[in-house]
Amino acid sequence: MTRKQKRLAIIGGGVSFIIAAVLLVMFAFSQAVAYFYVPGDLAKAHLAPGTRIRLGGLVEAGSVKRGDGMTVSFSVTDTLDRVPVTYTGILPDLFREGQGVVAEGAFVAGSPVFVADTVLAKHDETYMPKDVADRLKAQGVSLGGKENIQ
Amino acid sequence: MIIELGHYALVLALGVSALQAILPVFGAARGDRALMEIGTVAAKATFLLVALSFGVLTYAHVTSDFSVQNVWENSHSQIPLIYKFSGVWGNHEGSMLLWMLILTFFSALVAVFGHNLPDTLKANVLAVQAWIASAFSLFILLTSNPFNRLADVPGEGRDLNPVLQDIGLAIHPPLLYLGYVGFSVCFSFAVAALIDGRIDAAWARWVRPWTLAAWTCLTAGIVMGSYWAYYELGWGGWWFWDPVENASFIPWLAGTALLHSALVMEKREALKIWTVLLAILTFSMSLLGTFLVRSGVLTSVHAFATDPTRGVFILVILILFIGGAFSLFAFRAAHLKAGGLFAPISREGALVLNNLILTTAAATVLTGTLYPLVLEALTGSKISVGAPFFNMTFGLLMLPLLLAVPFGPLLAWKRGDLLGAGQRLFAAVAIGLVAGCAIYYAQHGGPVMALAGLVLGAYMIAGSLTELFLRSGIGKVAGSVAVRRLAGLPRSVFGTALAHIGLGVTLIGIVAVTAFETEHIVEMKPGMTADAGGYTLRFDGLRDGKGPNYTEQSGHFSVMRAGVTVAEMWSSKRLYTARRMPTTEAGIKTFGLSQLYVSLGDGMADGGVVVRIWWKPLILCIWGGALVMMMGGAVSLSDRRLRIGAPSRARKQKRPVLEPAQ
Predict the structure, then answer these.
(1) Are A108 and A133 within one domain?
(2) Do A93 and A52 reside in the same domain of the chain?
(3) Which Pfam families match (chain A) (predicted)?
């Protein structure tokens, strides 16, 4: 191999690897990310059943019901709209009625119930997930009575 | 009074490091030894001042001096002594002070051990270290002063965040920072070389030990953090692709690349410009990590800093340093003489492949971490980029690297023989296949991908051993000769082999846990049993307990095998009284390399309790492999070539063992 060929082989190999990586990242962004919604957004969103999303809001007071076995159902609300959610498993330590929550999962075709496979409540009792707080604020909901932006 | 002394020491440290930042550069430019020498003295002085300041904050925490705001917010008179200590850095202000302490510690190390460095290089390195130190001490003093006092002294503190009250947290941040901040030395060396306009193989030999030391500590820090999250958060996961984890993982990937490219530069004088760029990039990623974690732009477990003024300040530091270094690079890189041509298939070629893949992987993780922030800023829509994204991209990209790992050390410098290396790896491939299948059958069942992963891991271990076997001539020469040759190999060869073996072990752990883990969520009443991983778990009942600053309800479990009780486990739900915050304390029992993991859920109305039981096969391989990697780093670091700047002696030593390898 000549000097030029050697350099070309290394640069060519490198560039094609990087192009492959960029394509892979773009493909993954189209497949493997979940968008964030609060209940009020869903009517406009027209989601196809089975689309993975993150649903954020407050756990509606009085809505938590333990079914048979490990299944728990509750409603996520932004105080205007509400979405019924079912989840099978152990809820996080800080999951409480009236507190912020983010549920990840999808709607099943022909049902208004959101089936969550992950429920997040973060590690601080005064903490509301930033996404939820922003969206709720944007909708003019007061947060825990402390701040009212209306 | 003592508190004010700590504050004063920090102000003084800023002053001294400002001097250290300016005078040695002039000294180096004019060839004035006296001015250059100021850097050495100032570096030691700054370290002592910051250490004093840190000591004072520690004293305030240990004596529970609630007149200090930082202590009041993050401590409690009742917590155990160890958490009073770890509480010093379990908060934003204290952890920034720890950052400073470690930064100045590294500067002082350069000052003390850098006597064999050329004077101008040493002076410039210390000056660049001082630029960073000045910026961050200014940041602490202006936005995050840990020595602020409260006018009305409260009677009791607000307690340390309960999830942080753990031995893992006591160790994790200092180790992580030793790694993060350790890369600052590589950065300073790179910038100093650019200022000097001169760079050679000796430069790479000086940089390598710092890179190795920082890399080893960062590996340790990440492992600690991963294990801490595993047992403390009670979710049973060991890696979440959380932005904060990524913030430490990106510098690790870049640092690993730097480690390998510095090797090429030291041995072959090639990849000079790239190595300098990588040294800048690695520390830039550390700074970016600090920004992401400390500014609170991310929503995550670690986000305990939420004041935007801090974020903007760090962002300015970030832009100044990264931008400045890259501008300098752009101006000066052309002056650096490129050297050492090599064939695509050669040791250098393999190391280029390593660098290409590691930096691309680091860029991918960075993209995934920053994309939600950028998208939100541009369009307002919010997305979560989680494990599926990273597994798809990072996992696939790393695959060719894992395959290539055993090849690298077997290829010759300059012009290698892929076929020859492949033949020599034949045994490794065979061992990998057999061992992978053996583990697969031992864990019974699982997708085909898992088998492939296990084979890959075993192949990497066997392939790394091949290098040692071939170089010592085991099987070809008399046993005693082979042992002597093995003992005579440079330590860095063992370091390489250990690090690569560790990677293989970690891979086996990851694959085994991902493919063969079992998870049950069951409601249990006292006396009921559940099966996991060949063991039977009997729930014996709940008991109320009380710790120094919490109350708890713990469930007692008996672990039985074939009807005989082999172990007992406790898993509890705690309520930390000061913050009214509940936490889950998982029960973990180790069997060989596998673990049984039990986490308590909510109590049911009928007296039962929801229990989550995991069987984690070979999970200890994940962290064990990383420990082996760290051992590799430490062994490499002890190589005499790195301690003395005498390349000729090292080369002489190596030659006799190189020849019979064919």
Answers:
(1) yes
(2) yes
(3) CcmE
Nearest residue on chain A to B351, alpha-carbon basis: A10
Share of chain A above pLDDT 90, in %: 5
pLDDT at B475 (0 to 100)? 67
Residue A144, in any domain of the structure: no
With cut-offs at 50, 70 and 90, classify the pLDDT of residue B662: very low
Across the interface, whether the CB atoms of A17 and B360 are under 8 A apart is answered yes
pLDDT tens digits, B130-154: 999 999 999 999 988 999 998 888 8
Task: Render pLDDT for B300-356 as a digit per residue (tens, 0 to 9).
Answer: 434 434 556 777 888 889 899 999 999 999 888 777 766 666 777 788 888 888 999
B212, B351, B180, B264: which is closest to B636 by C-alpha? B212
Mean pLDDT of B21-39: 90
Given an 8 Å threshold on Cβ–Cβ distance, is A25 in contact with B342?
Answer: no
Residue of A nearest to B353 (CA): A14
Same domain, yes or no: A132 and A118: yes
Helices then strands (H, E): number in chain A? 3, 7
Mention every residue, 6+ apart, whose C-beta is less than 8 A from residue A64: A72, A73, A74, A97
Beta partners for residue A71, in sequence order: A88
Shortest distance, CA A90 to any CA of chain B (angstroms): 6
- State the ipTM, two decimals: 0.77
**d(CA A83, nearest CA chain B) in Å:** 19
Q: Are residues A81 and A125 in the same domain?
A: yes
What is the 3-state secondary structure of B198-242?
Answer: CCCHHHHHHHHHHHHHHHHHHHHHHHHHHHHHHHHCCCCCCCCCC
Q: Are residues A108 and A52 in the same domain?
A: yes
Q: How many domains does chain A have?
A: 2
**Annotated binding residue A46:** no
Q: How far apart are CA B265 and CA B277, in angstroms?
A: 13
Q: Are residues A21 and A45 in the same domain?
A: no
Cβ–Cβ of B299/A131 closer than 8 Å? yes
Range of the domain at A12: 1-33
- Neighboring chain A residues of B385 at a CB cutoff of 8 Å: 29, 32-33
Searching chain A, which residue's CA lies closest to the CA of residue B349?
A10
Among A9-13, A118-122, B4-8, B259-263, where is mean pLDDT lowest?
A118-122
For residue B551, list its beta bridge partners: B546, B575
pLDDT on residue A124? 42
Q: What is the pLDDT of residues B577-625, one digit of tens each?
A: 877 777 888 888 899 899 999 988 777 767 778 888 899 999 999 999 9
Using CB atoms, pick whichever of A32, A93, A134 lies closest to residue B584.
A93
Q: Is B363 within 8 Å of A36 when comparing Cβ atoms?
A: no
Query: Whole-prediction pTM value?
Result: 0.87
Do A87 and A39 share a structural domain? yes
How confident is the model at residue B420, as a pLDDT?
A: 72
Quick check: B349 and A10 CB within 8 A? yes
Q: Would you list the DSSP string of A27-51? A: HHHHHSEEEEE-GGGHHHH-PPTT-
Contact residues, chain A to chain B, C-beta under 8 Å: 1, 3, 6, 9-10, 13-14, 17-18, 21, 24-25, 27-29, 31-36, 54, 66, 69-70, 88-91, 93-94, 104, 122-125, 129-131, 134-135
Token look-up 């809820």 returns A91
Rounded to the nearest angstrom, the minimum Cα separation between B321 and chain A is 27
